[in-house]
Design a protein that fits this description.
Blueprint lengths: L2 H5 L1 H7 L4 H13 L6 H7 L1 H16 L5 H11 L3 H6 L5 E7 L6 E7 L2 E8 L3 E7 L10 H12 L3 H10 L2 E3 L6 E3 H9 L5
Antiparallel strand pairs: 1-2, 2-3, 3-4, 5-6
Helix pairs in contact: 2-3, 2-5, 3-6, 5-6, 8-9
Bound molecules: zinc ion.
Length: about 200
Amino acid sequence: MSPASFAALPRLVRLAPRSARARHLAGEILERAAGHHGCDDLLADCAGAIAEFREVLGQHLRSRPADFLKSLRALLAVEEEYHWAAVLGDFEDDFYPMMCPHCGVMVSIAIGNYGRYSATQDWDLGDVERRGLRPAGAEELTGTGRWMFEMAVNAGQEELADGIAHLFGRAECPLCASVFNIADEYTSDNRPVMR
Ligand SMILES: [Zn+2]
């Protein structure tokens, strides 16, 4: 991430209401800012443009756009939820590898059209010992999960909302049978450290 790309941010944000390309580029610049040395200062210098970009994206997302997911990811980067900006997919074929917080085994969380489960990985057999995920009910969601879920529901993005409910739900470890919150574990493993 270079200061040069940050210098382009205000101009991209001015173009963002009308240009999908400008929106996506501005989102990517912010997404890549995560955890990079010296970016705190650069982000502070761009505070005005970032605030404007938040407005632009909020309005754009309310219009139920075709690039809803990409724009939501840009907004997640604006909100400094970098790990979600980087990983949030369309839930057609998404995997979230993580460690069981109780026994330390690697657990593969799958949220896709082929299934929504936790599993352990076998070199030959792939995902084995599958356990169905336990999605969060709308009333159980809090914080970022609730915010993302409501953005998706309000935009009529039902599949995305359902995936988010699973991502912010619970999984059972196939090895030790303990149940843990997927998003909490993923966040503690992947949230970038800002220096
Ligand atoms: Zn375990």
